[in-house]
Amino acid sequence: MSCLKKPLAVLLFSWVVLLPAAQAAEPQPVEVFSRLPQFYGVSMSPDGQRFAMERNSADGDLAVLMTLDLSTGDAFYLLKADNKKVKINWYRWANNEDLLVSARYEVSRAGKKFFRTRLYLMKYNQQGGDPEMVIDWRHIQRYQNDVGYVPQFQDDVIDYLPDDPDHILMAIDISRPFEKSVFKVNLKNRSINRLIKGKKRIRDWVTDRQGNVRIGISLNYETGDREIFLRDEDDNYEELYAYNVSNDKPVYISGFAADPNILYINKYLGEYKALYKLDLTTREETLVFSDNNYDVDGGLIYSPATNDAIGVYHPQAPGGRFYWNDRYTPLQKGLDKLFKDSHNSLRAFSQDEQIYLLYSESDTQPGRYYIGNRKEVTIDLLFAQYPDINTEALSDHERITFTARDKTEIEGYLTLPKIGEAPYPTVIFPHGGPGVREYSGFDYWTAYFTTRGYAVLRPNFRGSSGYGYSFSESQMQNWGMAMQDDVVDGTQWMIDQGHADKNKICIVGASYGGFAALAATVKSPEVYKCAVSFAGVSDLDRIVRRARGFLGSKLVKKQIGEDGDDRDRRSPINYVENIKTPILLVHGEEDRVVHVEQSRLMADELDDEDKEYRYVELPLGNHHLEIQSNRIKLFKEMDKFLAEYL
Asked: Which N-terminal residues, if any, form the signal peptide (predicted)?
């Protein structure tokens, strides 16, 4: 391993490309939109003087972990990964000098491939040599019942112990899967001390702000029952909440307040998730924050100065955050005024809260990271994620609603191109999941589509998250039914509003969105001129058969359908003979979420029926397009396909 040092000023200047105003010219090349972001994943040291981040090489073959030292102006390149067999999973400062780095790598056993994770420790300016593993397995073996067992995942840090920078707390299943013991690990000499022996079915542990393990969360894989326990200092356990993950509204632990007797929880207030605090001495729950129209996600924001919770993440709030501590509201308002019409997200504060890291993006501005100094009242650009994109060519997203055929109101995002005239050739772009949702903000798919002159609709159809319990649960056993109708109804809305040329509409989707694209060719062949499916599901029954374990199978059946005949009736692969729409199928060879057989078998059926289609398989590709050459290949194939049919 080698380390390269550069002055910070040179790096900042070389990373930012200033582009001219948009001109009436050819759209930018596909590669501009389909490259991996140049930089991402910024982590700030506790003193605010050093930053760690990943930088992708121009060809995307390497991801390099690097650090910047603001006090000296130096940059260091510490570690590289190929984004294929080895990937940098995450990293975080253990203290002002040391970085904890999780790496994910592929292994094979008995003909099956799977990933392992390992945790490493690196100096911020490490010069040469291999990174050092945090866990010396010889120290673990004395606690093992089966010395031959080696856990798949060894990077679960449950507390970074900010007041004890030489130690961290880790949860490791040392004897059997998912039965995690808690260890205190010395980062100086790698010695370990077991604090808690693994308990049956307890999968997760939560610490308070003083570093004490207070909460254990269990899951019974046979029944789906989940229990949340309060642990005392004598290792006694008291049940706080219990529910069934298949049938009940869940309760989530958000974290502790600085007061160790106050626990924040995320649970439903009627239809919508809200944030509560639970007094552990009285068991009294108090509502902290709710939204009458959307779920509150419940992730807490903490002050490094006071060690207390100061706000909660909420996509509908300014910057995606709601602060109940008034000290932070003026800063957020000032940033929103400085960077108008942008999502301005405060990602980190230094220990004294004088230096902060800001991430800012908008519909027409890909993400940028800034370093702010409250004492000096300055803010400086650190880097842009997609510096080559001509932002003058991008379009704003408009949040819209349309009424589905059963009178349900469906929200979505409409983006119209700056070139051409209405009605436009149109891409209907249903999201994956399906239990996620679309937001405003930069989206590289939509940016690509609109700069080609296509209007784009991204509907948050039934089953999307964030719109309450009933709306989210409506995805259950509904694939290809009302969820699909919502997508088609959104397409008709585009036509009725004069946005879409009814003879030039294509549906494009990935994962569940890929299923929706394939289902559209069966259920609504007259609506769509073409369909693109990346990593899409074609056979629902195969998804159920591949589900792992009793609970995995139970949850998948609940989502997709209990009855095999019904699943077959909703599977596009069983209706290939009736398909008239040209289809582009693309799938990653190593997809572990939706197996590549879903597209291979669909392609075989299309071929047998002599249908118009193209199948592209991406070598070593996974479900998330993490390899740049595969992302570019997909976009190039899609570019040709859409140009041909739209």
From this structure: 1-24
